[in-house]
Design brief:
The chain has helices spanning 8-28, 36-53, 57-60, 68-82, 88-92, 126-140, 188-193, 199-210, 225-233, 281-288, 306-314, 332-342, 349-359, 409-416; strands at 96-102, 107-111, 116-119, 153-157, 163-167, 175-179, 215-219, 242-246, 263-267, 295-298, 321-325, 362-369, 372-385, 388-396, 407-408, 427-428. It has 429 residues and is of the alpha/beta class. An 8-stranded mixed sheet has the order 9-8-10-11-7-12-13-14, with helices on both faces. Strands 3-2-1-6-5-4 form a 6-stranded antiparallel sheet. A two-stranded parallel ribbon has the order 15-16. Helix 1 (8-28) packs across helix 2, helix 11 crosses helix 13 (349-359) and helix 12 (332-342) packs across helix 13. The longest helix has 21 residues, at 8-28. The radius of gyration is 26 Å and the shape is elongated.
């Protein structure tokens, strides 16, 4: 190591050696492994000591704070050993919602307002990115997961709730995508302020939740489906028991214990490295029905779990909700039909449509327009007609007629009893 200019890799190696020696010592003395905070503290002391040896005695003085360049060296060296290297600053930026990394090419991020930005590469080679992904999996995954040519995809959740997906071999370059989640309290009133919906739409949705209507929130990627679903959940009273089902914890119901004290949050899991232990969303949906829920919330329907979810909604668990990827409200119905067929139930199309019509009350579609997330359409499901689902568009953001004019009389009466007084006068029988 240079006497005057220790490099980040040199400092990182010194930190790694010190931490390894400490773990060996603890093991030999039958002590517990160090905590994350203890390792970070030791790493910082080690790095400061390495830099101090390379500086004149009077450069820092006794217990002086290193200069900004030294602090940067220490932070980056610690990030290489204990963290995520040059990925960490992106994860620490609260304005970033999505991170897209492809090999050693520039990194693209998406901010929470929908803006896309380019950042410098965080690795120099494809192999370095693969090593970073493996380090993330080993340090932050809940279970051992492989990432190699025989297992070219990786899907896990980071400690802060962010969702990570990585791929290799099947793509031209190793790819890493991180979808970040802030588990902040979301309320309908807040979404009205953000112009996601008009006040009348907010009042309508709140009444629909309180009157225990089954609701599907549909939209494209990044349109705000999870945010809206979280706001709808927060209209549910604290005495109701909620069971959530997710591929990865995104709703964050555990973060709002006071609002929903009686809940269980279930998460699917992939098979282990031996190919055992997989629990699917469909498995969780069946489990949830045995947990005495008042409402079942499915974070995202994308497969065979659609069938048990529809059965749950049509058999007494009214007030249940889910999200679904769809480019319009009407396209939700053929997608549900396709998902049910994925479960290999053998149920005829006409019967599935009858099930959909009896289970779903409203479909709320949301999309991004001019970098603003906005509810664009609400459909009330009326009936099934053979191979088609009959629905009324009760709200459209583009409509020039009074809103909610197509509400059925019975529905309007129910909503009126739960805080939507305009429903009756704008309804038809």
């Amino acid at each position: 190591m240079s006497a005057l200019s220790p490099t980040i890799p040199e400092v990182a190696r010194a930190i790694a050696t010190a931490l390894a020696d400490d773990r060996v010592r603890r093991h030999n003395e039958d002590q517990l492994p160090p905590s994350v905070d203890e390792e970070r503290h030791m790493a910082r002391l080690t790095a400061a000591g390495v830099l101090a040896k390379a500086r004149p005695l009077d450069a820092w003085g006794f217990d002086a704070i290193p200069n900004p360049d030294d602090r940067q060296i220490i932070d980056e060296a610690i990030a290489q050993v204990l963290g995520l290297g040059r990925l960490e600053p992106l994860l620490e930026d609260d304005e970033i919602s999505d991170i897209h990394i492809r090999g050693n090419f520039p990194v693209w991020v998406k901010t929470r307002n929908g803006e896309r930005r380019e950042h410098p590469p965080i690795v120099q080679t494809d192999a370095e990115l693969v090593d970073l992904i493996r380090r993330i999996a080993s340090r932050m995954g809940h279970r051992e997961q492989r990432f190699d040519p025989a297992h070219p995809e990786l899907n896990l959740q980071l400690p802060d709730g962010s969702r990570l997906f990585a791929a290799m071999e099947i793509s031209s370059h190793p790819t890493l995508v991180i979808r970040r989640h802030r588990f902040e309290f979301s309320a309908i009133s807040q979404l009205v302020e953000r112009q996601m919906m008009e006040p009348e739409v907010g009042s309508f949705l709140a009444a629909a939740v309180r009157s225990r209507k089954n609701i599907i929130v549909a939209g494209g990627t990044g349109s705000g489906k999870t945010t809206l679903l979280r706001a709808l959940i927060n209209e549910i009273g604290p005495l109701e028991r909620i069971v959530t089902i997710e591929d990865a914890y995104e709703l964050g119901i555990d973060h709002f214990q006071s609002a929903h004290p009686d809940h269980d949050a279930l998460q699917a899991r992939t098979a282990n490295i031996e190919g055992q232990g997989e629990i699917t969303m469909a498995d969780l949906t069946r489990m949830a029905l045995r947990m005495d829920p008042d409402r079942v919330i499915v974070g995202e329907v994308r497969g065979g779990e659609a069938f048990p979810m529809l059965l749950a909604m049509s058999q007494g668990n009214n007030g249940s909700m889910c999200t679904l990827h769809a480019d319009s409200a009407r396209s939700v119905f053929p997608k549900l039909l396709a998902y049910v067929s994925m479960a290999s139930t053998g149920v005829p199309t006409e019967t599935v449509n009858l099930l959909i019509a009896s289970a779903i009350h409203f479909v709320v579609h949301i999309e991004v327009r001019d970098n603003v997330r906005r509810i664009t359409s609400i459909h009330e499901v009326v009936d099934a007609d053979g191979t088609a689902i009959v629905s009324n568009e009760v709200y459209s953001v583009n409509s020039t007629t009074p809103q909610f004019v197509a509400l059925r009389g019975a529905t309007a009466t129910q909503l009126e009893g739960h805080g939507f007084p305009r429903a009756r006068e704008l309804s038809w029988s």
